[in-house]
Amino acid sequence: MTTFERIKKTAKERGLTLNQLNEKAKLKNNIIYSWKTKTPSVENIKKVAGVLGVSVDYLLGNTDEMHANKKSDKVINLDEALSEKGVVMKFQGKELSDKAKRGILEILDLIDGDEE
């Protein structure tokens, strides 16, 4: 599977079109489509991996583990997971970034673990 095919497959699993992924990663218009025939820059792959919540190694095909350097391989929908915990998805009228959502979810998981 090529890097482009992995990105496309993973984006679909996350409910994103390649255009949406392109926008969330703040890349030039349609640049991901150009990766069918061109090699993406390391910086762009990092941006896409960050949005998709996977490792760069996974996108490059170096591993089949999405989170090779993480403790957990589970894939979650951040919006669903946070809304189930009653967390508001906006701050000062702006949508929270995926990074902020992951951080909030990690904190909530730590708090839930402390209840024992």
Automatic annotation (TrEMBL):
CDD domains: HTH_XRE
Gene3D superfamilies reported for this sequence: lambda repressor-like DNA-binding domains
A Pfam family reported for this protein in Swiss-Prot or TrEMBL: HTH_3
Domain (HTH cro/C1-type): residue spans on this chain: 7-59
One GO molecular-function entry: DNA binding
Official protein name in the record: Helix-turn-helix domain-containing protein
Organism: Weissella bombi
